[in-house]
From TrEMBL:
SMART domains: PBPb. Residues 40-266 form the Solute-binding protein family 3/N-terminal domain. The keyword Signal applies. The gene is artI_1. Belongs to the bacterial solute-binding protein 3 family. The lineage of its organism: Bacteria, Pseudomonadati, Pseudomonadota, Gammaproteobacteria, Moraxellales. This is ABC transporter arginine-binding protein. Keywords: Signal. InterPro entries: Solute-binding_3/MltF_N. It comes from Moraxella equi.
Length: 278
């Protein structure tokens, strides 16, 4: 009897084990099906704009924008394929089927408002800044920059604005091929200040822990503005997904974590956005 009871118990446990295995198998199959069913969207970016997007040592595309769009995708149960794109005509590639989305440090104004494209809500608030070393307190406005030695990246709106105010060939304006070189000139005391996107300057400043900097900028042109994800005009369903994902990552703490990781400071809560900037 004892032997028979033992055999019966073994059979029960064996059947239970088989049931667990079957349940596990079904669960795995469901996960695989969900994975296969996920829509993959092609996302263009120009990876030469650290820390928004840039290439790592292995040629992979990394940056704040990349992490944000991946977090948004995870929130809304879709996938993204990040594609390296030239800046020129990047937004025009919607019409060729090469892109579903663009995220590349683009402001609402740079995209031309919503006249030609479908634009998301703000996933990030941008701001421009005049960076000086600690102790420099007399360079805070456009008027101040006119009479001081300023570094700026060439072929940018920042350079265009300063050239218009300082005039072409002004020796107090030092043009560099990248914003990092302009920042390096400040570190090496070749200029008194650098004019660029604040988030970019904060990224570079993180790499100089032994130096202290001031992020200045008052008056017109130094308000916050919206950074947006761009889709083809009429693709309202996709933009609705993006907006839902933006709201989710802002509420669950992911946005704050990424902002601190890439820019070295907590995300601001701007009360004014410059609608005329860019």
């Amino acid at each position: 009897m004892k032997s028979l009871f033992t055999v019966m118990l073994l059979c029960v446990f064996t059947l239970m084990g088989c049931g667990d295995k079957n349940n596990a198998s079904e669960s795995i199959q469901e996960e695989l099906k969900d994975d296969l069913d996920q829509k993959v969207y092609k996302v263009l970016t120009y990876p030469h704009y650290a820390p928004y997007e840039y290439l790592d040592e292995k040629g992979g595309i990394i940056g704040f924008d990349v992490d944000m769009i991946q977090a948004i995708a995870q929130s809304q149960n879709f996938k993204v394929e990040i594609i390296n794109s030239p800046w020129e005509d990047m937004l025009g590639r919607f019409n060729t089927g090469e892109a579903d989305l663009v995220i590349s440090g683009i402001s609402r104004q740079q995209a031309g408002g919503d006249a030609d494209f479908a634009l998301s809500n703000a996933y990030l608030h941008g701001r421009d800044s005049i960076l000086t070393k600690e102790g420099v307190t007399n360079i805070n406005t456009f008027e101040d920059m006119v009479v001081h030695n300023i570094g700026v990246q060439s072929n940018t709106i920042f350079a265009d604005e300063l050239i218009a105010k300082k005039r072409e060939g002004n020796p107090t304006l030092k043009l560099s091929s990248t914003s990092f070189l302009a920042f390096s000139d400040l570190v090496n005391d070749k200029v008194e200040a650098v004019y660029a996107h604040e988030n970019i300057l904060r990224h570079y400043a993180k790499g100089q822990p032994n130096l202290k900097f001031n992020f200045n900028g008052t008056g017109e042109g130094f308000d916050y503005y919206d950074m947006v994800v761009v889709a083809k005009k009429g693709n309202d369903e996709l933009i609705a997904k993006i907006n839902a994902g933006i709201q989710d990552v802002h509420q669950n703490g992911t946005y704050q974590k990424l902002h601190s990781q890439w820019f070295g400071v907590e995300a601001p809560t701007p009360t004014i956005k410059n609608k005329n900037r860019y």
